[in-house]
Amino acid sequence: MCSWAKYLIRLSVGLLLTALPLTAQGAYATDDMPDAPSAVAQAAQQAQATGTITGTVEDQSGAVSVGAKVELTVEGQGQPQQLETGVNGQFTFSHVPPGTFHLKVSATGFNDQEITGDLDPGQFYITPLIALAVSGGATEVSVTLTPVEVAQAELKEELQQRVFGFIPNFYVTYNGDAQPLSSKQKFHLAWKSSIDPVTIAGAAFLAGLEQASDDFSGYGQGMAGYGKRFGASYADIFAGTFIGSAILPSVLKQDPRYYYKGTGSTKSRIAYALANSVMCKGDNKKWQVNYSSIVGSFATGGISYLYYPSSDRSAGLLVQNAMLRIAESSFTGVFQEFVLHKLTRVPQHSRQQ
Fold this sequence. Notes:
Layout: H1 3-16, H2 39-47, E1 51-59, E2 69-74, E3 81-84, E4 90-96, E5 99-106, E6 113-119, E7 124-126, E8 130-132, H3 147-158, E9 162-163, E10 167-168, E11 172-173, H4 183-194, H5 197-212, H6 222-252, E12 258-259, H7 266-274, E13 279-281, E14 287-289, H8 291-303, H9 315-343, E15 344-345
Helix pairs in contact: 1-9, 4-6, 5-6, 6-8, 7-9, 8-9
């Protein structure tokens, strides 16, 4: 297979396999670019007028509370909405108008708990963990969670994000003010992404394409050759994920996730998404050069020298593969911004009524 066709196939697989983290998540916001109003942009802005409120209810022992009643009232928005928590103790209210809201959680044998907050347009609001106290006990909800605890609650939601309900889409956050991940959380996210069955299936599929076109001919053919190609393909994914999305982000204090923008002109959102391979949010929540992605792409290519056939090793190939990874990150950012957010499903264990 000629080199350009091979890279085109790899790019297509990379875009499909959202299990592979965007090694350069986030980008410099370009809202200062001139808007180009269109029907599509206006529809997107209207969709962003409402937000989402989600959370988890537990009892004092830490066990999830199934069937707890949750009532949502938004000031100035008429009748309250009600639902019950599902098998994981979770609840989700979608299409909530922005403004001050009140949540009331009640369950038989427990004291009612109430939470008040402010929802911004388009915000994905995750409440602090709601712990129900047995009747006669404390009635206040603790809202003094540490930043690490808030980040853990947000990460728990992100690990449920799947395109079409089965393809993992873990490395994107729809909360523009998400808490930075700790080093432990970055490694946990990389591990969950790397061992997901869809990730492994993607590596197997790519190895099959390489086998059919006899790429890396030094591996030979037959099951032995396929096994070597699969091992190399998965090693690329595993190494790239941990180096670019866990090790370097931990050392350099950078966030490996893509921050969904969702607002502004189409042109500004495209520029934002394309820049995601070279700019990211730091753990200080400020935009900065994404050294984790850039250095990680070249480091992963260097490590691949340990297991690819000697006949396929060259400085030119290393640079080409590194640039391909950076390009994949940019184009995947565009897919995240305009396509994948419409197809990504977060399992809702409760329904609005």
